[in-house]
Design brief:
The protein has 179 residues and is an alpha+beta fold. Helices cover 33% and strands 29% of the residues. Strands 1-5-4-3-2 form a 5-stranded mixed beta sheet. The longest helix has 14 residues.
């Protein structure tokens, strides 16, 4: 009788796998400004849009390079967290299944306060996307204002992008992938 009961149920038959979890990757709870920077760097390396988005405050303010602002001012009007996430999702899709995506910061100057931290650094961003008309290496200077929220977690609240010479900057990549 027990054999009949066991054979009648699907206890040992394969089940349909669960869909993959969104997120994952190398995200750490941003208890410090340094962890916010680490999360952004990891999200770029992993092309993880959800973890990238989690690093920015809801009221993010972005200031593009002067050239990008002059090229198409309408893109930047009201640029906030939603636009930041949309551009990064499109970029991640265009770079899907690639490797060696990387964000490197150098010449870092930091100003720390109790609930406000400013990071000013030169960046070298490498994204191996599949759009041949666009550069895969971008460089410039960024200023991130990182603030501690009421929940105790840190997020980027303001971002200023500055060009370095004639090199394509992060703003150029954002403009290309938001359209």
């Amino acid at each position: 009788m027990l054999a009949f009961v066991i054979s009648g149920c699907d206890l040992f038959s394969p089940r349909t796998p669960d869909p993959p979890l969104e997120g994952g990757g190398n995200y750490v709870q941003p208890d410090t400004p340094a962890q916010v920077v680490e999360n952004i760097r990891n999200a770029v390396a992993d092309l993880n849009a959800q973890n990238y988005r989690r690093s920015f405050a809801e009221d993010l303010q972005f200031e593009p390079t002067a050239d990008a602002a002059a090229d198409d001012p309408s893109i930047w009007t009201g640029w906030g967290t939603q636009e930041e996430e949309s551009y990064f999702r499109a970029l991640a899709e265009a770079a899907r299944l690639t490797t060696d995506n990387d964000l490197r910061l150098s010449d870092v100057d930091e100003t720390a306060g109790d609930m406000l931290h400013t990071l000013d650094a030169t960046y070298l961003l490498t994204i191996n996307h599949r759009r041949p008309e666009l550069p895969t290496t971008l460089q410039g200077r960024l200023v991130w204002t990182i603030e501690q929220g009421e929940d105790g977690l840190w997020r980027v609240t303001a971002w200023t992008d500055r060009a370095l010479g004639d090199a394509a900057a992060w703003s150029d990549l954002k403009a290309a992938f938001i359209q």
